[in-house]
Amino acid sequence: MGEVWAARDRVLHREVALKLLDLDGMTQADLPQRFEREAIAAAQIVHPNVAALFDRGVHGDGLFLVMEKVCGQTLTASLSAERALPVTRAVAIASGICAALEAAHRAQVIHYDIKPHNVIITGDGLVKVIDFGIAGFVEAAFTVARSSQLAPAGTPEFGAPEQFLTERGDERSDLYALGGVLFAMLAGRAPFTGHNSIAVVRRKLDEEAPPLDGLRPGLPPEVTTLVADLLERDPDRRPQSAEQVQQRLQAILVSCAAAEAPTAAMSRPPRTRIMDDDTQRRHQSPSPGSWNRASTDETPFTPDALLPQRFTNDLDIKFTRIAEDTRFSHEAGPSDLAEELEHRGCTEVVVGVYAEQPGPHTTPENPVYVSVQVFAFPDAATAQDAQNYLADEGRPWQLTIWSAREGGGLTPCPDTVRRSFRWRYSQRNHRYLTAALAYRADLTKDGSIQPWLAAAARKAAVSTGPQNHHG
């Protein structure tokens, strides 16, 4: 549809992506209408898994969109490099795509072109869906050219069969494409192939999708069943909403996490009734030695059990927790880091964000924020090995930097935070490893603030761990 350039907004001082469409000499008459549809579609969706639209306009004979610049690589590149992906990683990426579809469908927008090339994995491991160039709208929610007025469009390898017919499909068409992408991530190729686009579409219209386990045996049954359900030729036989699919994906992720790293509750023998004379001992806090192994540690893997609500650093500056959550470890950093974490038995991470509180030693207009991630490993020795791997010096691992989202929740910080002066501190506490990273709100590059950031990051890291759980 056009060209995309990296650009800089010199007014707002931020990096952007500039999508251009030159109308001079254009051979496809409906491209301006598609460009308008893309702008309106993207403007309806505000979600961390969707590239944001900032502006649109006309310049001479060209149309342009100003969009969020997403740094990373396309899912196509990941598949080319690795062929098939590990199950947990593939399902987690599918969950990110599905979250984007949930947001789009709530905004009455249908993407119609979900494929690996339109999915970017950022350096922080965040999934971003891009390119609403052939998007449709539910029940003509906006005054734009209808899908039926435009030439059929979609990518034959991933588009739903009905997209290439007169009815053009609906939200369930996006779910079919999601199934095709998940199939490709797990099998290393799209469900349907052919010597040209027409042959691929013909096969989709006439044949059932091949069984995934025929190409990759040994997959969890719930994964192959979900893919088969999504790739049903008849839309009525597919899951009927992105919310339903997301629930199934999340259940699979929980199941995979339990299989790869059994929790303390699963690995402990069944409890027996404690006699009355043991009542007092039962309510005592566990000994620190029990925190060294998952089989003896009874600390819940939750923010409230592992993170303090507030702390005061060595400079007598107070910090309060303003956001927290438990995330999958693939969200903690790039894919190679996620694989190393999973290899060491870490599939989830507790995340917290702290904000500097007003006081005599602070600068209220530019507070310091601290992003904290807590990783749990099967035992203290594995945690020590992971700390060596993630050592602050000599290894440029780009852990995700988190911030509090307006209205609640967490969101990864933009790349501008990485370009500011920041300070990271890692701490191992029994089988738990904490990485805390501090930065100032004005994103200054002035290194003179190092003592303040270092004190905040260090105290945040050493304050985390199982000692915060009190029964």
Automatic annotation (TrEMBL):
What residue spans carry the region label Disordered? 262-306
What GO molecular function terms would the record report? protein serine/threonine kinase activity
Name of the protein in question: non-specific serine/threonine protein kinase
Protein kinase domain ranges (all copies): 1-253
InterPro entries cross-referenced by the UniProt entry: Kinase-like_dom_sf, Prot_kinase_dom, Ser/Thr_kinase_AS
Query: What CDD domains does the record point to?
Result: STKc_PknB_like
Documented EC number(s): 2.7.11.1
Keywords, in A-Z order: ATP-binding, Kinase, Nucleotide-binding, Serine/threonine-protein kinase, Transferase
Thylakoid as a keyword?
no
What Gene3D superfamilies has UniProt attached to this entry? Phosphorylase Kinase, domain 1, Transferase(Phosphotransferase) domain 1
Q: What species was this sequence derived from? A: Streptomyces zhihengii
Q: Name one Pfam family in it.
A: Pkinase
Q: What class of enzyme is it?
A: transferase
Residue ranges annotated as compositionally biased, kind Polar residues, are 285-299
